[in-house]
Amino acid sequence: MRVTIVGTGYVGLVSGACFSEFGHHVTCVDVNDEKIKALKAGDIPIFEPGLDSLVDRNVKAGRLDFSTRLADSVGASDAVFIAVGTPSRRGDGHADLSYVMKAAEEVASLLYGYTVVVTKSTVPVGTGAKIEEILMEHAPDKEWDVASNPEFLREGAAITDFMHPDRVVVGTTSERARNVMKELYRPLFLNETPVMFTRRESAELIKYAANAFLATKISFINEMADLCEQLGADVQDVAKGIGLDNRIGKKFLHAGPGYGGSCFPKDTLALLRTAQQVGTPLRIVQATVDANDNRKRAMADRIIAALGGSAKGKRVAMLGLTFKPNTDDMRDSPSLDIVPALLKAGATIHAYDPEGTAEAKKLLPDITYCDDAYACMNGADILVIVTEWNQFRALDFDRAGDLLKNRILVDLRNIYARGEPQAKGFEYYGIGRGGAASSIAAASLTATDS
Ligand code: UDX
């Protein structure tokens, strides 16, 4: 099969590379000339484990190429995937569909032979119908169908998620479009991955509902963590204890500083706006969003409380800035709330992130960036783990203790077992681990309320 992917961002590039690995011929198109030049030269613009070798292998095999011109490939394609951005519209939180619509118009003018136009971008319910209107207007005499095929890729694990998904969702009622999509995903069919065909509107909503549900699980366990701190319970045990019930499931019950990234914050807001528009308020999703916003803001208060109530003149050693490990993505990262609040409270920050530094420097210019974890500890008053990169999971506490002014560790990701840092003389503050943590939790809750 021949495939064009419009938009060579995170989703477009990963999907294009993976379809070419399935044996299809894929052209990834982007308006950004520099990006395409870089890709042609073998430079991958994002950090995603395994992506560079996947791209390299398929480019060399002649199955994957890059272009700035849709006209080079759309006409010959069996399927055209629209994978351009749908950012939150400034002011109202609706998904901004201008890039999607522009792409659809351009594609329409280039169609030749039967083509399935597929939305891969996360788009509000009804977008497929709008694209259909555009195609009717601009390509009335051509043969095409519009399908929805949402992605469920996690950054840092995107290739595995594409190759071994829990399910593939395709929204179309056209038999002809189904056959094209079946052929595209044939290797997964053979692996017995569930491939669901639904109405287009259902597929569009599945993506939003999945993300909103996962976000809700996180906000739920984060609130339980706050409660654990007040009641002397341990959220790790509570999460395990409830997660072993198959009806609940153990994933996405890891308490932390609040969810960030390119999907959950944006998609939950867009879903709320869609629901408002049709007069169906989503109270649970709204509460999830509010709890997460408050939580991110409350994290700096925890650090200040662990410093004894004031950050003035204190130096904070911060490990991790990205919204999660194995990515260089800083979008909606909790660090974007934590760092400014600490600076405002009079602290200085020395930080280290294995991959996020370049991006972080643009967003958080007022901190000192260090070359490794220990370099930022030198002379610091407190050590804070914001992102759970693997290399922070086995810190040398003796070395850290010698470098730090005070042996205080705030672990916002609970990557250390109870008692482990304490055995090395550290005051340890995790998340939702009653007892020792309760005093700073109480302080931070008061600070948030006021
Ligand atoms: C998410 C969805 O998982 C994916 O299916 C969708 O297509 C895009 O959005 P991603 O944003 O890459 O993927 O990361 P994910 O691993 O889901 O984590 C999102 C955020 O939630 C991160 O900030 C992470 O730290 C946080 N999180 C996740 C928790 O705080 N606790 C958890 O238990 C899981």
TrEMBL record:
| Enzyme Commission number(s) from the entry | 1.1.1.22
GO biological process terms held by the UniProt record: polysaccharide biosynthetic process; UDP-glucuronate biosynthetic process
The UDP-glucose/GDP-mannose dehydrogenase C-terminal domain sits at 317-418
| Pathway this chain belongs to | Nucleotide-sugar biosynthesis; UDP-alpha-D-glucuronate biosynthesis; UDP-alpha-D-glucuronate from UDP-alpha-D-glucose: step 1/1
Residues where NAD(+) binds = D30, K35, T86, T122, E155, K266, R331
Which residues are listed for substrate binding in this entry? F152, L153, R154, E155, K207, F252, L253, H254, A255, G256, G260, K324
Do you know which InterPro entries this protein is assigned to?
A: 6-PGluconate_DH-like_C_sf, NAD(P)-bd_dom_sf, UDP-Glc/GDP-Man, UDP-Glc/GDP-Man_DH_C, UDP-Glc/GDP-Man_DH_C_sf, UDP-Glc/GDP-Man_DH_dimer, UDP-Glc/GDP-Man_DH_N, UDPglc_DH_bac
Please verify whether the record's keywords include Magnesium. Answer: no
Q: Keywords of this protein's UniProt record, alphabetized? A: NAD, Oxidoreductase
Q: Which Gene3D superfamilies match?
A: Cytochrome c1, transmembrane anchor, C-terminal (1.20.5.100), NAD(P)-binding Rossmann-like Domain (3.40.50.720)
**Which Pfam families does this UniProt record tie to the protein?**
UDPG_MGDP_dh, UDPG_MGDP_dh_C, UDPG_MGDP_dh_N
- Active site (UniProt): C263
Q: Which GO terms describe its molecular function?
A: NAD binding; UDP-glucose 6-dehydrogenase activity
Q: Which reaction does it catalyse?
A: UDP-alpha-D-glucose + 2 NAD(+) + H2O = UDP-alpha-D-glucuronate + 2 NADH + 3 H(+)
UniProt-listed PANTHER family: UDP-GLUCOSE 6-DEHYDROGENASE TUAD (PTHR43750:SF3)
Give the family per the record.
Answer: Belongs to the UDP-glucose/GDP-mannose dehydrogenase family.
> What is the recorded function of this protein according to its Swiss-Prot or TrEMBL entry?
Catalyzes the conversion of UDP-glucose into UDP-glucuronate, one of the precursors of teichuronic acid.
Listed name of the protein: UDP-glucose 6-dehydrogenase
